[in-house]
Amino acid sequence: MGDRRGRENPRGRKNLKTVFAYNIPDSMHWKGLWVIYSFYGNVVDAFIPAKRSKEGKRFGFVRFST
Hints:
The protein is mainly β and about 70 residues long.
């Protein structure tokens, strides 16, 4: 199962934007994704699934409030 953390419950929120991150290093945790993307806005959720892409790359999603 993937690793996920959110400060707010994103369900029911209409003003959210999701960014797809690809080729994430094996050493990166969802917290690192959160910190990096927090420079670009208010992050409310960061998620890196345990499953990899077909190419074997790690990917994740970062959700921002707008």
